[in-house]
Amino acid sequence: MTYAMLDANQLDDLISDGQLGAAATALSALPAGDIAALLDRLSHQARGVAFRLLPKDLAVEVFDDLSAGSQRRLIDDLGTAEVVAAFDHLDPDDRAELLDELPAGVARALIQQLTPAERDVTAVVLGYPRGSVGRRMSPEFVHARRDETAGAALTRVKDRGHAAETIYTVPVLDVARSLCGVVSLRDLLLAEPDEPIADLMSRPMFAHADDDAEATAQRCVDRGILAMPVVDRDNRLVGVLTIDDAVEVVEQARDTDEARAGAREPLREPYLHASILSITRARIVWLFVLAVSAILTVNVLEIFEGTLEQKVALALFIPLLTGIGGNTGSQAATTVTRALATDDVTTRDVVRVAAKEVRVGLTMGSLLGVVGFAVAALVYGVDIGGVIGLTIVSICTMAATVGGVMPLVAKSIRVDPAVFSTPFISTFCDATGLIVYFSIAKAVLGI
Amino acid sequence: MTYAMLDANQLDDLISDGQLGAAATALSALPAGDIAALLDRLSHQARGVAFRLLPKDLAVEVFDDLSAGSQRRLIDDLGTAEVVAAFDHLDPDDRAELLDELPAGVARALIQQLTPAERDVTAVVLGYPRGSVGRRMSPEFVHARRDETAGAALTRVKDRGHAAETIYTVPVLDVARSLCGVVSLRDLLLAEPDEPIADLMSRPMFAHADDDAEATAQRCVDRGILAMPVVDRDNRLVGVLTIDDAVEVVEQARDTDEARAGAREPLREPYLHASILSITRARIVWLFVLAVSAILTVNVLEIFEGTLEQKVALALFIPLLTGIGGNTGSQAATTVTRALATDDVTTRDVVRVAAKEVRVGLTMGSLLGVVGFAVAALVYGVDIGGVIGLTIVSICTMAATVGGVMPLVAKSIRVDPAVFSTPFISTFCDATGLIVYFSIAKAVLGI
């Protein structure tokens, strides 16, 4: 058995050493999925070479399994004939995703050479807005009829199965051709041939073609549904969303959330092969915007420069306090952002979230504040200790509340919650935290 | 069609208003998967009530779809009879997961009442270490023999299909009963009955039972494999990892990474129903540890208190500079942590990563440094401008490098990279950044 017999770096070396024969042998010993995964991790040049080393029919299979990004980059350096062959072999939904990646000219050229039938199913998918379920579903499915028997349905599955993306979940249609249930191929196969579909089918979990792809995919994944029927506004079946496509949608969405919680955009290629330029591009804008908004903290401190001059010791605690604020804020922000993604929280819950975070922040602030007071009082005297303790309580409460509410605000004004969460909240908490800190200091120390 | 006809809050209200009849009707109109999703979001008390409202056979199905956490909480307030019924119905891998959740006593009691056969398959799964593929695989599968025909294999699938967790991917065994391929039910069904399996089967992507569950699940998900055969050290088939279980493993792992990048532990229940106490518990330890390590920054500033007293203006830039360092560090850390999770980077790449991040940090630092110099020079004079510019360059380079390398170090000493990433890096960058800042200041300003 062969998996992991060859890793991306070894393959890269083989190719750069010009040992193409060895590379070809090693590659053809792997299953298509593993080859695709390897190619996804290769450098641009090596990917082109490796792909050409594959026997033709294996090549189309592998192309199928590549990420849309790699497909696009690969197309740049493949001959038209190779591209056409690979493109024909794709499922309509993968084809639509790739077309989104390609320059309009190339896309048109590719669509032109499809058979009319293939062009139609692709057009169905392309007809729905980006980010909708319609764009990610497969319009090629086999259905069963409510009024037929398991045997009849099974025969149709066998006849039409070749074209369908999946045959393991069979949507059931009533006389009006609208979705009334699903039956698993398993039940079809294990049932008596004369058993009526109506008895075998179960209530379907389904989606509308213009539903949000991310939310639907998450539902599909959470419940481990192999294929979710997709219907149009009149409840007529238009396609199925298969779990592997759903997983892809969910993973892409989480990559973006994760990246933005880390103040960057997701990389579109494997880290080690991403150029310094593209990595910088994915980060610099965020860093710049955050730095600019952080100038706010400089202005705040200027206001209190007098206070600082009278008691320089106050400066010692600035990073500690802003750090606590930033961490508390990002704890709340990431929690709520995640809860939004999993539908545990909706924008309607803003008050409940705020109420929760106020109490959590207050609890944590009190615990931490007491310790802060004790330590600071011992070293710098009771007055400074008091300032620190009080500031920690206020900052924690404020940061948790802001951090919890921000993602909801973002969502309700149709901004990706992740954009607003962590980084902005820490900057915001830094500035407001400093105001709180020095106001308390002035009050307590009577400066 | 009924999905989303009822949301968790409405159900909660119905139950707390004692409108159980209405709740029962609303519930029984939903597919089991939707009911489970609803129950997962209900408060502890409401969940128990809602579950009892379900007809017995629907109830076991729903229990099956619940998260292990909800199952555990549900068991606390169900009668033994109800529990036993639900427990019997679980697949061995789900059963093993639930048993991990339960107190040893309860677990033993539940295992006792299983049929010997059921107990055996559960024991198989429990025999593998936590976090291994063996723990998440299903030991109930149907196989085909290399030397038989499609027809013969299909018959076996029909006979044994009821017990198996999936029949859509059929592992193929040779005479030595070791894995030599897989054939999809689709190909079995669409093939001529007399076609030999040897011609239908394809090279399998498989895993070893003691492989790491997370890495294997990620592979399975990345390639959209419906079921991955699992073999023991002698390459004998012991089970299959189905994609729905793989997705669960991957999502749990990402929840943990995401949570820790946000300086907290993942919540084990829906946010809105998590108690203030449990939310606080998930955050306070992190916050406390970070706060304590942030005391480092106070000590650093104390060393430079003299410098600060001579030039209080230097204090104004502290939050700005630590902010830039923290953000740069977490950008690099989250990038590399993700690359580790997707196998794009291994601990062996530490030098390549460092080299990359040094250059990225230097690039971003220079861009930002020039702006920083210009702005600061205009407002506070060229000397301060120079200090700020130089400091930004050094901090960005350092933070990016440390942020990129840290996750690899963590991984190589067998610590979850996410633990080390973002929060610790920002604290670390704060302290070192301040040293850099004041050293440069002393040199440039000649204090």
From TrEMBL, chains A, B:
Q: What is this protein called?
A: Magnesium transporter MgtE
Molecular functions per Gene Ontology: magnesium ion transmembrane transporter activity; metal ion binding
**Which Gene Ontology cellular component terms are annotated?**
plasma membrane
Annotated TM spans: 284-304, 360-380, 386-406, 418-440
| Keywords from the named record | CBS domain, Cell membrane, Magnesium, Membrane, Metal-binding, Transmembrane, Transmembrane helix, Transport
Record membrane topology: Multi-pass membrane protein
InterPro entries per UniProt? CBS_dom (IPR000644), CBS_dom_sf (IPR046342), Mg_transptr_MgtE_intracell_dom (IPR006668), MgtE_N_sf (IPR038076), MgtE_transporter (IPR006669), SLC41_membr_dom (IPR006667), SLC41_membr_dom_sf (IPR036739)
Quote the subcellular location field of this record. Cell membrane; Membrane
Q: How does it assemble?
A: Homodimer.
Member of which family?
A: Belongs to the SLC41A transporter family.
Purpose of the protein: Acts as a magnesium transporter.
Q: Which domain of life is it from?
A: Bacteria
Residues in domain CBS?
137-199, 200-256
PROSITE patterns from the xrefs?
Answer: CBS
